[in-house]
Specification:
Length: 548
Amino acid sequence: MKTQQQKYRGGRVLLTGVAVAVALGLQPGTAQANSSNWLGQDWEVSGYIRQHLSFNLENPTLVGPDGEQRGNYRHDLSMSRTILNVGLYRDFGNVRFKVAGRVSREQSTDYMKDLQSVMDEWAMTGGAPGSAVNLRKDVYDEEDLREFWVEGSFADNWEYKVGRQQIVWGETDFFTLLDVIHGYDFRWRSFLEPENEELRKPLNMVSLVRRFDDQNGSLQFVYVPGSLNDNQYRGNSYDVEGGRWANNPNKGITFASAPFGANVRYNYRHPDADMRDDSYGLRWSGIAGDWGYSLAWFHGPSQDPVANANPASNPGEPQLQTGPYKGVYQGGATEAGEFIYPFIDVFGFTANNYFPGIDAVFSTEVAYVPKSPYNVGLYSIAEGPGCGFFPGFCGIVEKSVLSTMVRMDKQVNLQNVIGTSRPSFLSVQLFNTWITDFRADEQIVNLAGFGGAAREHSTILTAILGMNYSNDRINPSLAVGTDLTYGGGFVIPSVEFAYGNNIRVRLEADIFFHKRDQDLPLQGFNRTNLFGYFSGNDQFVARLTYQF
């Protein structure tokens, strides 16, 4: 989580970047006065002002140490978030430059105040005067430098891009396979924001591309210096603070500090998961006949953290700490464990082609990780047969994992059926994860803290239908998905209204189906998996954007 000092440093960098951009714009000969652009006619100013409002469609579990539900929050305002994003861009000819910053502020809703109150209650059960986390200030409010880069070309076939940026590999929409360079911040809206770039964490990095025109391809080299990126910007961030997107039923419980003695903190300096280490990768993109394809390799921290248990707090079965991190624990004696991001290698392949006979584009994406870290242990000590403080706290194993995606994109003519103004867009995706060296006796879990057992194969099917009315001024869509292995799924109907070039209004419902609920935290630990984590989180969202 960000400290106040870290947030101040981020804001200072943002202001410095804007100052540099303005200085460049005011240099003699680089810009001329323009009544429509205060920076000069050669600078492009873009961005948006956005207001998010979300309302609970269910009554989420929010239970204090006394075991009592704190209230009925159905239909309550769960989020009121204001975002300002401003970018400055200029093409100097051989060099292009951009800087963009984002400031987000949340208004304290009654629901957020109750979340904070329960967090404080749980903290006091562990002898602390109150929670170490302030949801609004430490989790939701942010000042973020989103882009600060220069790009250009040299030596005929070479291109470079240096600075704070996002680099996206892969073909998928919902779940990432090869999009592994960056982590995502899922704390304020989980994975539901329609624009991935809003949740993806930008990094200070270098991209070099060498074009091979005679071979219809290009080779990209990516380098991420660990020492030039803050720890929290690498790897995915989930709501372990107990906020509105904490996995059911853990709202109000902060695992990253010390309520009830859990105190599971992030360790960014583990010898095998040191965020100061550099990341790097290669990607070849080319065309072979009618096929577009790519081959990629990336070495960096795993996107999802795993729990490295503290042997002093997890004294159970011999299975404990038998994995590759046995005995390598650096936390305090009273902690249950630590979250770490082990470094892994990801090897990938993508391909796509258009088939005119059925008027559809087929694409595939494959990712292979030879040593993907998983937590083990289906039970907690409190449940008798367990060996860990929580399920999954019995150690870490590394498994070889092959993930695949197959997708079909097609224009469907629905004008005479539902009256759309042009053909609609349909995308269907099938995801599969195969733990190739799976062993049931290892008791692998998909998420530490939950007793849902992983299976050798797991499959998810998703589909998106995008429609257009009134010459693209009214744009409804429907996204659905189902977990064919663990059960559950989602339905997300939405509609976006476009008013001229500047105003967009989006209305959306996020509805989850799940296999099992749990009403009380820290009791009978959930046996659920992916969509069970979202139990109680059905939302209605309204988003107003003014873009410029």
